Amino acid sequence: MAKATREDVLTALGRVIDPESGKSVVDAQMVQGLVVKDGNVGFALEVSGARGPQAEPLRKAAADSVAALPGVLSVTAVLTAHQQGPQTSTRPQTQQGHSHNHGAHNHGAHNHTSHNRGAKPHQPSPSAQGIPGVAAIIAVASGKGGVGKSTVAVNLALGLAKLGLKTGLLDADIYGPSVPRLLHITEKPQSDDGKILKPIERHGIKTMSIGFLVGEDTPMIWRGPMVQSALTQMMNDVAWAPLDVLVLDMPPGTGDAQLTIAQRVPLKGAIIVSTPQDIALIDARKGLAMFRKTHVPILGIVENMSVFVCPDCGSEHHIFGHGGARETAAELDAPFLGEIPLVRAIRETSDAGTPIVVSAPDSREAEAFLALAREVAQKIAAPTRAAPKIILE
Which residues, 6 or more positions from 251, have their beta carbon under 8 angstroms from its beta carbon? Predict the structure, then answer.
């Protein structure tokens, strides 16, 4: 059977009339983030914040219309509600609906975890409970991109696993997921019940990334509420348990995604990754300040690409400066967790999907990550804190 095309889906959605505007959801420009691939369809309906969950029948009608198309295997449809005028809340409203599963496995949903026909709308409210079965959640963050944060997060997770901790790794960077490449994961996660995804396991850790659900070259052209919805589902609609620690590879910066996680998950702490150069440290300070404002403990600062080691002669060169992160940690009264060298082996093993901690566990470079893992393991053994709250100044 031929798979439905994007045009087929838009035609079907064009027959769904929004009762408020009298227009189709397509003409009213309510359809956002449409993805159609291999018979799997995902999209969001954006409505005003005043409508909120009252628009659920419209979402269901849109999902049913697409699900009826020949060649459609699964449909994932969510509601996103935006605020009109001045914002009075620290986060947008997001209403998530269920979708339809027409195959043995719902392995092609591209926006969010799919739900079976008839399931109740998912209500994200994990802030008080955390993620069931996960003892500790830590964030690996950076104030800016390009500092090797994802490489640090992956090798840290693998290092924690080598220490005997049951470890998970969530790639929380919706717009630029790195974990699929860093761990060479090309398959899609499966679901036994169409509701909860099973994380993909590599090298002894459980992993999940939006990159497992979309093509590597597919751009994620999503608004803030859709990103928040995806993050919430990847945290709560994935079979993580049992875990001693879940490592979140955060997106760079201090935007909606970071605030969503800080608000909705009781983080055990955050690790800030920076290079030694001044421009990176300026942004690292911002990231550290954001976590402190949301009452997330700072586990420490890591200086990545600390020193370049010549592969031929072994001499060391401080290309980006040296010691900047250590000095910044001291100035901000934050722990300094160590230095990761800039060596070709780390880059090569990362590109190959076999991180240095598993491909060369006895190397000097792997030992730097294992030392970091030991530091972090000691810190997360402390008593669990309460869920954070956002403080506005």
Answer: 172, 173, 174, 175, 176, 257, 258
Q: Minimal CA–CA distance to 240: which of 282, 299, 199, 180?
A: 199
Helix or strand holding residue 158 (H, E): helix 149-162
pTM of the model: 0.66
Structure-token match 């290309």, residue found: 319
Q: Say if residues 308 and 148 touch (Cβ distance below 8 Å).
A: no
Q: How far is CA 193 from the centre of its chain?
A: 23
**DSSP symbols for 145-195:** SSS-HHHHHHHHHHHHHHTT--EEEEE--SSS--HHHHTT--SPP-BSSSS
Please give the sequence-ordered ranges of beta strands (E in DSSP) within 96-161, or none if there are none: 100-101, 137-141
Q: How far apart are CA 26 and CA 255, in angstroms?
A: 29
Structure tokens at 129: 């409970």
CB of 36 closer than 8 Å to CB of 9: yes
CA R_g for the chain: 22
What is the pLDDT at residue 22? Answer: 94
Are 355 and 154 contacting, i.e. CB atoms less than 8 angstroms apart?
A: yes
- Bridge partner residues of 300 (DSSP): 271
Q: How far apart are CA 47 and CA 295, in angstroms?
A: 32
Distance CA 275, CA 322 (A): 9
Q: Which residues are bridge partners to 273 per DSSP?
A: 302
Any idea which residue has 């990754």 for tokens? 273
Cα angle vertex 49, ends 47, 54, to 5°? 70
**In what helix (H) or strand (E) does residue 345 lie, and over which residues does it extend?**
helix 344-351
> Could you give the count of Cα atoms lying within 13 Å of 363 in the half-sphere of its Cβ?
17
**What per-residue confidence (pLDDT) applies to 391?**
53
278 token code pair? 């001044």
Angle, CA of 30, 103 and 78, to the nearest 5°: 20
pLDDT, residue 82, reads 52
Q: Which residues contact 209 (CB under 8 A, 6 or more apart)?
A: 170, 171, 177, 179, 180, 185, 234
Q: Consecutive 10-residue runs of the chain (393 residues): their mean pLDDT?
A: 87 95 93 82 81 82 93 80 41 39 35 35 44 93 84 97 97 89 92 86 95 72 70 88 96 72 85 79 81 89 81 66 75 90 91 96 95 95 57 51
Distance in angstroms (rounded) separating the CA atoms of residues 372 and 375? 5
What is the rounded distance in angstroms from the CA atom of residue 147 to the CA atom of residue 340? 11
Pairwise CA distance, residues 247 & 230, whole Å: 17
pLDDT at 15: 95
